[in-house]
Amino acid sequence: MSKGELGKTAQALVAGDKGLLAMDESTPTCNKRFAAAGIPQTLEMRRAYRDMIVTAPGLGDCINGAILVDETIRQQTKAGMPFARALQDAGILAGIKVDAGAKEMAGHPGEKITEGLDDLRDRLSEYAKMGARFAKWRAVIAINDGIPSEGCIDANALQLALYAALCQEAGLVPIVEPEVLMDGDHSMARCAEVTERVQRAVFHHLYLQRVSLEEMILKPNMVLPGLECPQQESAEETADATIQCLLRAVPAAVPGIAFLSGGQSGELASARLNAMNVRFRSRLPWAVAFSYARAIQEPALEIWNGKDENVPAAQKALVHRARCNKAARRGEYSSAMEKEMA
Ligand code: 13P
What whole-number distance in Å separates Cα of residue 43 and Cα of residue 76? Predict the structure, then answer.
C-alpha cells in the first residue's frame, strides 16, 4: 500500500467527529465480564454478543473503526457474513488486536511486558487479507511505590515501536496504546508525570524504528487521579492536565489521539472528552477522539444479558453511548443527552 493510502486510513479513523469502538476483549476478559453478568461463557455467546454490536442500527454514524479480536475476525454474523465484511457494509473500518497480552515482566515485580512480536509479520499479512485496515497493541504501565521503572517503560515502548513498524510494512495503520493504569491511590499529578515519561519514551522508539507518525493513531490514557485517590479532580481539571501532557509529548504529525476509557464510567468518559474539546479543540494539532471498550459497551452488555429478545434495546444503549462520545468530540455533550435516553 502506498504511503498516501495509509495516511488517509489514519485520518479516516478520526474523521467526522466519530471515533473507534474497541470490541477486542481477549477470551478470558470477555468471559469474566459474561460471568459477572450471569451470561454463559461460550464461543457462540461471544459470537452472538459481537453480532449484536456490529449489526446495531446507526453505529456507523458515530464509529469509524471497530477493533476485533482473532476469534471474531474468523467468525460470521447470524446473517452468514464475516465480521470484517459486516463492518465494512456498515461503513466501519475493521481493525484487529494483535498483541498476545501483558505478562509478568522478569526481574520487575509488579510490572508487565506485552508479548506477541514473534510471528507478527505473518499474522499481519493474514489479517490484511481478511480485510483488516488497522491494528492495535496495548502496553500496560502500573503506578505504585517505585514503579514504573525505566526498564519497564523502555521495553514496552520498544515493543510498541517494533509492532508499529511491522504494521506499516503490512499496510495496516498501527494504533499505539500505552496505557497507564488508573488502579491505586496516586494523585493526578503523579499520573501526569508517568504518562508524559511513557509517551516521550514511546515517541523516541517510534522515531528510532522509523515509524511514520502521519500513519498511526495514539491511544493513550487520560491524565486522571488513581481510582482510590481521595482527591478526584473535575472534568475541566483532568482535561487541562491531559492536554498539557499530550502537547508536551505527542508530535503534531500524529493525525489523531483516541483515548481508552480504562475503567471510567461511560458518562465520565464522555464528560472528560467533552471538556477537552470544549477548552482546546480549535488549538490542537491532532483530533482528540475516543477508542472506548467498556465506556461504550457496558450498559449494552447488561441489557443484552445473553438473550435474543434484548438485542434491540441493547443496540439502542450501545449507539446512545457512541452518540454521546461523538457529541463530546464536538464539545456538545451534556447530561441532558443522558436524560433523553432514560
Ligand atoms: P477500555 O476503554 O475498556 O479501557 O478498553 C480500551 C481498550 O482497547 C483496552 O485495550
Answer: 12
Residue 255 β-bridge partners: none
| 183-233 tens-digit pLDDT | 999 999 999 999 999 999 999 999 999 999 999 999 999 999 999 999 999
Q: What span, in angstroms and rounded, lies between the C-alpha atoms of 293 and 290?
A: 10
Is the CB of residue 293 below 6 angstroms from any atom belonging to ligand 1? yes
Q: How far apart are CA 112 and CA 271, in angstroms?
A: 30
HEC letters along 294-327: HHHHHHHHHHHCCCHHHHHHHHHHHHHHHHHHHH
Question: What is the residue with the minimal CA distance to atom 4 of ligand 1?
Answer: 262
With beta carbons less than 8 A apart as the criterion, state whether 100 and 148 touch: no
Distance CA 83, CA 54 (A): 8
Residue 40 burial (CB count, 10 A) = 11
pLDDT score, position 3? 55
Q: What is the pTM of this model?
A: 0.98
Q: What is the pLDDT of residues 139-197, one digit of tens each?
A: 999 999 999 999 999 999 999 999 999 999 999 999 999 999 999 999 999 999 999 99
- The mean pLDDT of 23-52, rounded to a whole number, is 98
Which domains, ranges and CATH numbers included, belong to the chain? Answer: 3-341 (3.20.20.70)
123 C-beta closer than 6 A to ligand 1 = no
For ligand 1, whether the C-beta of 262 sits within 6 Å is yes
Q: How far is the CA of 292 from the centre of ligand 1 (A)?
A: 5
Write out the DSSP string of 254-300.
--EEEE--TT--HHHHHHHHHHHHHHHGGG-SSEEEEEESHHHHHHH
Taking the CA of residue 22 as reference, the ligand 1 atom at the shortest distance is 8
Catalytically active residues are 177, 219
| DSSP codes, 191-226 | HHHHHHHHHHHHHHHHHHTT--GGG-EE-PPP----
- Going from the Cα of 116 to the center of ligand 1, the distance in angstroms, rounded, reads 18
Residue 295 beta carbon below 6 angstroms from any ligand 1 atom: yes
**Cell 443522558 -> residue:** 338
